[in-house]
Amino acid sequence: MYKVKTVFECQSCGASSPKWLGKCPDCGAWNSFVEEKQERVKAIKKDTSSAPQSLASVTLENEDRLSTGIEELNRVLGGGIVSGSLILIGGDPGIGKSTLVLQMLSSLFAENPELKNPALYVSGEESLKQIKLRANRLNISGQQPIHVLSETCMENIFDHVKRMKPSVIVIDSIQTVFTQEIPSAPGSVGQVRECALKLMLFAKGTDTPIFLVGHVTKEGAIAGPRVLEHIVDTVLYFEGDRGHAYRILRAVKNRFGSTNEIGVFEMRDGGLAEITNPSELFLSERPQNVSGTTVVATVEGTRPIMVELQALVSQSTFGVPRRTTIGVDVNRVNLLIAVLEKTGGLHMGGMDTFLNVVGGLRITEPAFDLGIVTTIASSFRELPIREHVFVFGEVGLSGELRGVSHAEARIKEGAKIGFREAILPESNLGRLNANIKPEIKLIGVKDISEAIKAALDI
Ligand code: TYD
Ligand code: MG
To answer: I need a surface site. Which of 95, 237, 347, 429 has the fewest CB within 10 A?
Structure first.
């Protein structure tokens, strides 16, 4: 008889400790330690390990990607589903994760009629009737070879999987399934990690792609241990504002493609619709001829998107002015306001500043700097930015403008939407591809004062 050992594990980062702690020393979460029984590690069979090979002798099979039939999803995945990959889709409750995977399964079979085996959709949260109701709403015909299973025990799921040999598996969600091998509750760190590991081994061993749906904690991280993100090949976040119909699918980790790619969807009555031209959508309600709004050409991954940025600068009633931002980092904005004060000649000291990226996008790239600067200047001086002008460029601490990447793509996107002038860093102007014939006027500027003059026509 051996004594059952228990450890306390942090439910937010997976750190373990022999005794209970109020605050996790690793991630700083409070009251996150839960007691979990620890099993003895079973002996690992030796004969499964493979011998080392020279790199030259490793042959590459054709990396065949399965198109999901949803272009926006394909893009985020890096071109389609790689066989044997484990893909985690995280997001707030009700954002549309289950809808997305169900729609994906349906269009997958429409796109790839050669798939012989059916797909298996395992739901631990909803009954079969609820799934059927959603499928009806999404207009998924009964002809599609999608099998549904309402089950939470991993061992039972694997029984069915081994019999069925599905071509794709979806587990909705990883927090509801459990394995009998460990005694802790479903959703706990131990269970989530163990189940994900089992699924990973199965995916790699049988070349079956597996989609996991994951919940998100209040702080916005995928619930369960961080290790989950290390186990899977691809982590996609499905985000968006409840108040808006737009949903953005973002790759935060991808072993088979670029991260920072985004896919844009709109939640409609009949499910998620792809938005292939997000620039038009984000600019559709732009007010004309008012101060405090600028269109910025930003790039998400490899994709240029034109977004509207709004600013409101007003006299502060408090001693310390307020700076509130939605969609951009407030520290970056504080820094740019300091630059504006020092080199742009704007006295922002007693002014409250509010910034909003329209459409619920979150922008982190430095090329957005010039947009922030010109929008604030426009609101401060109560002068509208000239019509048909868009901007991009990184701002340095002494007010100088620095070149950014993908300048051609940004200019082309602006021209496509109907803009006639672009304000951009002068250094970008020199480096532009010679055989690009821009249909629009390009105004190269050296510092923010020049940029503000060009944008506001002063
Ligand atoms: P769901 O996929 O259940 O979200 P999750 O799995 O991420 O929790 O999406 C539920 C929300 O989407 C719900 O608020 C209703 C809405 N919805 C639509 O607007 N149209 C639709 O066609 C469907 C299926 C859902
Ligand atoms: Mg769901």
So the answer is: 347
Read off the CATH number of the domain in which 309 is found.
3.30.230.10
Instruction: Classify 108 as helix, strand or coil.
Output: helix
Q: Are residues 88 and 237 in the same domain?
A: yes
Q: Is 91 annotated as a binding residue?
A: yes
Residues 272 and 322 in one domain: no
Ligand 1, atom 11, residue with closest C-alpha = 94
Q: Is 366 a known ligand-binding residue?
A: no
- The preferred substitution site among 97, 98, 99, 241 for testing ligand 1, maximizing ligand atoms within 8 Å of CB, is 99
Pick the more confident residue, 433 or 268: 268
Q: Is 206 exposed, middle or buried (0-12, 13-18, 19+ CB in 10 A)?
A: middle
Q: Is 98 annotated as a binding residue?
A: yes
Domain final residue, candidates 232, 257, 276: 276
Q: Is 389 in the pocket of ligand 1 (CB under 6 A)?
A: no
91 Cα nearest atom in ligand 1: 7
Identify the three-state secondary structure at position 134.
Answer: helix
Q: Is 92 annotated as a binding residue?
A: yes
Q: Examine the fold and report which residue of 233, 259, 276 is the final residue of a domain before the chain moves on.
A: 276
Closest ligand to 272 CA? Answer: 1
Same domain, 33 and 101: no
The whole-angstrom separation of Cα 389 and Cα 363 is 20
Question: What is the 99 CA–ligand 2 centroid distance (Å)?
Answer: 7
Residue span of the structural domain in which 348 resides: 281-456
CA angle at residue 157 from 151 to 107, to 5 degrees? 85
Q: Same structural domain for residues 198 and 330?
A: no
In a domain, 52, yes or no: no
Q: Is the pTM of this model over 0.70?
A: yes
d(CA 181, CA 74): 36
Based on the fold, state whether residues 121 and 170 are members of the same structural domain.
Answer: yes
Distance CA 92, CA 57 (A): 45
Percent helix, strand, coil in the chain, to 5, is 30, 30, 45
- Please report how many Cα atoms fall inside a 13 Å half-sphere around the Cα of residue 367, on the Cβ side: 25
Distance between Cα 294 and ligand 1 center (Å): 33
pLDDT tens per residue across span 188-227: 888 888 899 999 999 999 989 999 998 876 565 655 556 6
Q: CA 62, CA 60: separation in Å to the nearest integer? A: 6
Whether residue 160 is found in the same domain as residue 299:
no
Tell me how far the alpha carbon of residue 109 lies from the centroid of ligand 1, in angstroms. 22
DSSP 23: B
pLDDT digits (tens, 9 = 90+) for 387-442: 889 999 999 999 999 999 999 889 988 888 888 999 999 999 888 876 666 678 99
